[in-house]
Amino acid sequence: MPITTNRTYAKRLRLRLTTVALLLIAFAAPSRAEIIGGAEKLNVLILGDSLALCGFGKRLDERFRNDPQVNSTFTYMACGTNPLSWLKEKPYTSIKAPCGFWSIEPSPDSQKPPREMQDTYGMKQNRAPKPHSVPKLEDLMERVRPDILVIQTGSNLFGLFPDGKTVRRTHHGAALSKYLLPFKEKAIASASTLKKVYWVNPPTSGRVSKEVQDFLFDQTRKQLSPAGTVIDSRTLVAYPYKHMDPDKEHFLGEEMTQWADKVFDLIEDDLSSQPLADLKPLSESHGGPFVARAALPLDAPARAEAVEPVAALRAEAVAPPAEAAPALAVTPMDAHPPAEPPPKETLLVKGRLVFKSRPIPLNELLPYQESLVAYVYDVQKVIKGRYDERQILVMHPAHIALKEQRLKYRMGKGYKLRLDRIEGTLWETAKARDESGQINLQPYIRVEDRKRHPGVGTR
User: Fold this and answer.
1) Where are the domains of the chain?
2) C-alpha distances out from residue 162 to 8, 393, 427, Å
């Protein structure tokens, strides 16, 4: 064979091999976010509490799963959760959801429906759901590597307001920080793949005051800024609900679908405001300016507007005036750590019972399984520790695992009480009723009762 022919053959062979190699690379090693039509396809992670179990989570999952911009959708709904429940933070490290769990994950075979594991009320007659471990964000971030996180949460933080109506701005601002800021830190951690976080605050609740709901929303959008977009669900679905549970908070039916659809539309509209390929991880961009979309009242047209930055979060900040439309997204601010709580110590006091609140009726507690009731004692003697008030507020378990507790405490009788602060325990966000009006008293719980929370045994 002539030399020129050999050289030509070799050149053609190298060209063919190069072409084959490029094709193999293209098909064998797709990127995490697939490129279709010049736009990235996103991995979506959805987390939700008991409201999500009522239909919101399933519907939102369907909308994302059928979106051509989405590569994969992973959805986890766990009853009784708050933001810390999804983290490996104490005392929630191994917490279990006692009142319902539902997961929806992509099937290994893309042609088949997603895999679902559902254990919720109503699936089996006369049987409550079994406890299920709450997945942890740290593990999900590593396994799912989500670009978008949608978390529906907040109604269980109403437990921080036992009387359901009184806001102590400094105290409650610091209390909310303990539940919000650790989640924010995980979302913007250096290893995080998240590019957008959408925080879906609760719809209107009939069991707490508007002041409490305004305060929760206002604090959430300020404390999460600028790492997330906070959606005020009260503007998306009207109260009272047609198919409402006795607790005046949970509901079913077409209004759940309406809520999920409107949340999806807001998110889709926000994502379409810029090329997906331009989205940067929050770990790189969380310190920059943030442009929000406004969530206006139901009868007002949606519009885009920039949110002006504020210098810093003040614990005593109050909700916007009623006539001002609440913002959909957070307001940029400098992040502040939560206020340090006073040192904790176990108290031993002798007290005389002078006031008893009524327990929450069982039908108003469901789907939750634990509740507290507030008692007030005149302090007769401080045997151990330091306590300067004349009265002390003690929260007693009224329900544990749906069983009514026998509270054998008689008015006017003296009791020796070994107490811990309820702050920082699993009981802190439990459903509670406090009719005492003693809003300035720090709530305590008996040491023996603190250990009786079902979640304690799972740590």
Assistant:
1) 1-30, 35-306, 347-458
2) 85, 11, 11
What's the pLDDT score for residue 456? 63
Structure tokens at 391: 């009265």
Amino acid letter, residue 374: A
* Measured distance CA(333)–CA(226) in Å, rounded: 7
Compute the distance between CA of residue 180 and CA of residue 173 in angstroms, rounded to an integer: 10
Q: What is the pLDDT of residue 126?
A: 72
- Give the closest residue to 271 by CA, choosing from 144, 147, 106: 147
Residue 344: what pLDDT?
65
Strand 101-105 and strand 70-78: pairing? antiparallel
Residue 289 has a pLDDT of 34
- Spans of the chain below 50 pLDDT: 1-11, 13, 15-38, 287-343, 458-459
User: How many other CB atoms sit within 10 Å of the CB of residue 391?
Assistant: 15
Residues 397/454, Cβ–Cβ less than 8 Å: no
b (16+ CB within 10 A) / e for 313-348: bebeeebeeeeeebbbbbbbbebbebeeeeeeeebe
**What's the pTM?**
0.78
Q: What is the CATH number of domain 35-306?
A: 3.40.50.1110
H or E stretch including 229?
strand 229-232
- CA 153 to CA 148: how far, in whole Å? 16
Give yes or no for a contact between 35 and 242, defined as CB atoms under 8 angstroms apart. no
